[in-house]
Every structure is written in structure tokens, then in C-alpha cells.
């Protein structure tokens, strides 16, 4: 097969499984406490299995992985933003002092381009580099074992392969620091092959991926804190007491320290980046991670006020609290897809549009289709939040995850949307919103492009509009590929 970017994407896609397996025997877990005896029921998805063998086949030892000087981050909400803030602080310090000079970042999912998942110094790795390193990994793993007595090795699945590619890329590119976001859990996550991180962190916890992580918040906390390692200080935002107790137990079990980080009241004033409390909390956590990393790797270095100000100012995270100015229209894109995140998205939208100088109409574009979450509950939560903030939109447009009206899509779109039962669910959403707000103009569009075109027409007729696009990462990614088609080579 020709070593092309397109072929790399096809081979990667061939490793995607149809559905995530569900953890068995979750009903047997003690609901009062999570103790070591419960771990047998907390089997999770064994994505970690095979990672060490595959890394060895790629020619890497545990020391090679440890040498990446890793910050390992798990949690339910805010993982990506915390990773990006940590990267931004380390980059700011490196720009001033020369160290770290090269910072790698591995996150998921991507919104516009698969290469977003593996970044070096704020940029997705180029197509040429992605292609070269992908085929190096693919061909080494596909190569037969030289010893006949060794049984054939099973091949990694989609996310496992991406994590292996990230390790390979960062080692080959000789990064000074690498920030890794877990995929779903922690204890059994493929990224937990990291044995000696420099520092670990847990962002806000909530009930998500319950089929894999368990039916209680204590189960979730147990899984996420599986990234704690001896000797690597652990940090967490403040949690509710029950999951916090699980985190303390796991820290003691792993022979490490755990510190709960409050919101830092000394952060710079930056309404664009820190206009919602959740981002200030993620930023506060990231600041402590960057400080701990420097203390371990360069004790003579400290983050000064200029590093912090530059880190906040240069922060960027596609599809999360992202605003775009387009003539008289202001677009506010956030991939919120659970009730808490939607409440935060509503507050952010209103904080940035509810000013005396802003007398434009508000438009909401929403889409959510998922077997794991109740879409009606999400619509209800968003409507409640906007109503409480006295910011109900005049126009509401429900749509699907289909991007373009002609059915085409960008070649490197790997965030595969599920089947969308349009128009059934959109019709239900439309009916629900009309019951909540009879004054709003509510409609549905078959594609994201159609929804954006309609919003632009309304904006032109009304002399400008403020448009909130939220409900799903699929929607956020599709919207950005249309609103910013020049970025990352999307078409």
C-alpha cells in the first residue's frame, strides 16, 4: 500500500470497533464505599492490555516512555481544557527561558482533523509527519515475530493505535514534556501504560460512560484515579465528599500525595478565556500542574506573572468556549454534551453577549443524538439555563450531525457520528422547545450547513445576531469546518 495520508486514515479507521463493550457485574458493587475487594467488579474496558507488548515491538522500553516527562490527566469534564492550559503555561515559560523547548500534547477526540489529537508546540503534527510515523508504527506492529515459539500478537484497536502513535511521535521528536489526556477512564485506559509520570491530575467528576465505569460516582472516581502513581504528586479540583474520599484512598494506596486545588483568585482578568467559572477552575488546576512539573524537572525555574499572563492569553482549545466574529454575526461554539457543560455554555454565551452595546437577536443551533445520554434532558437543561439568565433565543434551529447539504465531508474527519434518526428526534426537540417558549421561532435543518445558512440569513435580515452552537462535539466540529474551512486543511 502506498504510504499516503489518505491510506493512513483508511488503515486507522479499519481498527475502529462498532461499539464500546459494557462492563459486566456492575450491579454487584458496594454502593456505600469502594474498597479493594470491589476491584474485581470494576474490570472496566481492558484497553491497557497489550500496550506494553506493542511498545516493546515498536522498540521502546518503559524508560523511553518515562523519558517523555509526562503530565497525565483524567476526569469527566474539563480534561481537554486543563491539558491545553497546562501546555500553554509550559510553552510560555519555555518561550521565556528556553525550557521546555518542545511540548507534546495528546488529547481526544478531534473536531476537524485527526492530527489535532497529536500536537507539538501548539500545532497538530503535519500530514507528512503523521503519515511517516503512522506507517512506521503500522508496519512494525504488522511484522511477524522472529521467534517461532512466540504466539502472534493481536493488533491494537483504534484508540490504542492512536496512543501508540503519540508515544512514537513524541519519542522520535524528542519532546521535553508530554501531556496525555486519558480516553475514557483511567485504571484500564490505554494511556495508563505510563508508569512514572511527573505529575497527575483529576478534573471535575460526573456521571458519564456509566456502562464502562460503573453506576455510581464512587466507581467513576475509582477508575479515574487509577492514573495515580508512586512518587508522582496528584492534584484534583474540589470534588463532592464521597468521590473525594475515594481519591484520597487511591492516593494512599498508590503511595503518593493528593492536593485539592481551589479556584485561584489571582488569575489574570481575561473575559475571552476565563469568562466562566469552570474555565477558571481548569486554569487553576493547570497552573499547579505546570508548577509541579517545573519543580520536578527544573527546580531553578519558576512560573512568573508574565508566564501566567501569556499562558492565559495564548490559550486555545477548538470547539470549547470558542468565539468567531463574522461581520455582524458573533458565533459562540461549544461542544457541551451533558447537563453541567450546557449550563456552563449558556452562562458563557450570555456573559459575552449580554452587554448594553449588544442589541442583536440571539439564535441557538443545537444537535444531540446519543444512546448514552438523554437528549430531551439536555434540551430541557439548556432551556432552563437560558431562561434563568433571561436570555432565551428568538430563533432556535435543531439539526443533525450531517455536515453538508451535498453529502460531502472532509477527508480526515475521523470523529464518526452515530446514525441520526432525523427528522424524528429533531421533531421532538422542536415540540419541546415550543412548549417552553411559544414566542420563539423554532425550526429544523437536515444538515449543519443548512442550519448555519439559515442563521446567517436571519442575521442579515435582523442586522446582526449572536449565535450559540452547542449540544455535541460532532456539531461543534462540523460547524467549525464550515465557519473556518481554511484551518487544518479542511474543505
From TrEMBL:
Keywords: ATP-binding, Cytoplasm, Ligase, Magnesium, Membrane, Metal-binding, Mitochondrion, Mitochondrion inner membrane, Nucleotide-binding, One-carbon metabolism. InterPro entries: Folylpolyglutamate_synth, Folylpolyglutamate_synth_euk, Mur-like_cat_sf, Mur_ligase_C_dom_sf. It is found in: Cytoplasm; Mitochondrion inner membrane; Mitochondrion matrix. Its main location: cytoplasm. One of its GO terms (biological process) is one-carbon metabolic process. GO terms for molecular function: ATP binding; metal ion binding; tetrahydrofolylpolyglutamate synthase activity. This is Folylpolyglutamate synthase. The lineage of its organism: Eukaryota, Fungi, Dikarya, Ascomycota, Pezizomycotina.
